[in-house]
Automatic annotation (TrEMBL):
This is Oryzain alpha chain. Keywords: Disulfide bond, Hydrolase, Protease, Signal, Thiol protease. Belongs to the peptidase C1 family. The gene is LOC111256658. Residues 133-353 form the Peptidase C1A papain C-terminal domain. InterPro entries: Granulin, Papain-like_cys_pep_sf, Pept_asp_AS, Pept_his_AS, Peptidase_C1A, Peptidase_C1A_C, Peptidase_C1A_papain-like, Prot_inhib_I29. One of its GO terms (molecular function) is cysteine-type endopeptidase activity. The keyword Protein biosynthesis does not apply.
Length: 456
């Protein structure tokens, strides 16, 4: 059975929840150390808040609770010195996963490309070390960023970040060039983009996604080709509906935060980072300065930058839903000592290139030409497809005198409304409507049709 919270325990759970989110330092000062019962009550409320349930009989509930309790103590210890760290941790939807489980389930989808095409490095955003750049950029305020999305869980692996990162960058440049924000289809990339290192739920690269979109002549909307969080068969019809196009893509000069800043000042940029640290998993708010390396395992979008309390930061759009981080975003330290940038953000940055309008809607297929009437002879015609009694001696009129049989199946069964190839033959077709031939130009009275009556 699944562990649930009873109505009678709501007050106790609410109190436990207050204890759960109280300041750790203040709680310790008041001697309010949490008991295991309080922790379990708080965990039950957390489960309800996140819509989760586990089988208590199989031991899964206890395993998840232990991970939650361990993460809670980690969050408490960190937040007791949140002022010194500059950012806070929280019990988000990953709070009952160990860090190993988190990394296995959600990361590894946008690793470093061993064969990244150096010739694709663009020069338009290379910073010369002198050029002045805006102090603050936030593409959300300019309407170039779609609402936060949630890549969810794709089977046992959820390595779809590459698709969300690429789509976010394309949505941004399309808004900048055309003035229209169009929410695009990650699912089309999952199903159809098998070029390069792209492999659906098993991971991919933003550069390869850009190459697919450019080569396909565009990408469909999310409304028309919606996200399903699973690998699927490419829908060729929807793949041909190219709502938004790009001309190509370029890479930001590698390990150069100033060039990345220049690029982000002009458009949202797809970036790869290492997101596997425990602090990143449980990030809640502030400028992230936590531990991370350069083993790139996650694709996101840099949509701005700024400075808070003297700390420069990147504004990064994630794809883990709006209940992670700062409403789905994370601010990451900028202008750090390492050339690769915080968590490797400057190592594999790229952006789509677009100069003109999107392709127009596909032309409608031509309307079929009206069917020509059947010519009986040089004097008479019948409506096209409506009769088999048009020409003399061809076909036979049934007893009801309203239907007839074609010459290939001349034996009429009026009751069954079928025409047989021969008497008692199982080879039958449906009877046809009978219309008398009409004299062309209306100058003569129509000649009588020769009626051959057949019966079974």
């Amino acid at each position: 059975m699944a562990r649930a919270v009873g109505r009678g325990g709501l007050v106790a759970v609410a109190l436990a929840f207050l204890l759960l989110f109280a300041s750790p330092a203040a709680a310790a000062g008041r001697g309010m150390a949490r008991t295991e019962a309080q922790e379990r009550a708080a965990y039950d409320l957390w489960l309800a808040r996140h819509g989760k349930a586990y089988n208590a009989l199989g031991g899964e509930y206890d395993r998840r609770f232990q991970a939650f309790w361990d993460n809670l103590r980690f969050v408490d210890a960190h937040n007791a010195r949140a002022g010194a760290h500059g950012y806070r941790l929280g019990l988000n939807r990953f709070a009952d996963l160990t860090n190993e489980e988190f990394r296995a389930a959600y990361l590894g989808g946008a690793g470093a490309a061993a064969d990244r095409n150096a010739t694709a490095t663009g020069e338009r955003y290379r910073h010369d070390g002198v050029e002045a750049l805006p102090e603050v950029v936030d593409w959300r305020q300019k309407g170039a960023v779609a609402p936060i999305k949630n890549q969810g869980q794709c089977g046992k692996k959820n390595k779809l970040c590459w698709a969300f990162s690429a789509v976010g960058a394309v949505e941004g440049i399309n808004k900048i060039v055309t003035g229209e924000l169009v929410t695009l289809s990650e699912q089309e990339l999952v199903d159809c983009s098998k070029n390069g290192q792209n492999s659906g739920c098993n991971g991919g690269m933003m550069d390869d996604a850009f190459a697919f979109i450019a080569g396909n002549g565009g990408i469909d909307t999310d409304d028309d080709y919606p996200y399903t969080a699973r690998d699927g068969r490419c829908d060729i019809t929807k793949k041909a509906r190219r709502a938004v196009s790009i001309d190509g893509f370029e890479n930001v000069p590698r390990n150069d935060e100033r060039s990345l800043q220049k690029a982000v000042a002009h458009q949202p940029v797809a970036v790869a980072i290492e997101a596997g640290g425990r602090e990143f998993q449980l990030y809640e708010s502030g400028v992230f300065t936590g531990r991370c390396g350069t083993s790139l395992d996650h694709g996101v979008v840099a949509v701005g930058y700024g400075t808070e309390d003297g700390q420069d930061y990147w504004l990064v759009r994630n794809s883990w839903g709006a209940d992670w981080g700062e409403a789905g975003y994370i601010r990451m330290a900028r202008n750090v000592i390492a050339r690769a940038g915080k968590c490797g953000i400057a190592m594999e940055a790229s952006y789509p290139v677009k100069a003109g309008p999107n392709p127009g809607p596909s032309p409608a297929p031509p309307s079929p030409s009206p069917a020509s009437p059947v010519v009986c002879d040089r004097h008479s015609t019948c409506p096209a497809g409506s009769t088999c009694c048009c020409t003399y001696g061809v076909g036979g009129m049934c007893k009801d005198r309203a239907t007839c049989c074609p010459a290939s199946h001349p034996v009429c069964n009026a009751k069954a409304r079928t025409c047989a190839k021969s008497r008692n033959s199982p080879d039958t077709v449906e009877v046809l409507l009978r219309f008398p031939a009409k004299r062309q130009r209306g100058s003569l009275i129509a000649e009588e049709l020769v009626d051959s009556v057949f019966s079974i």
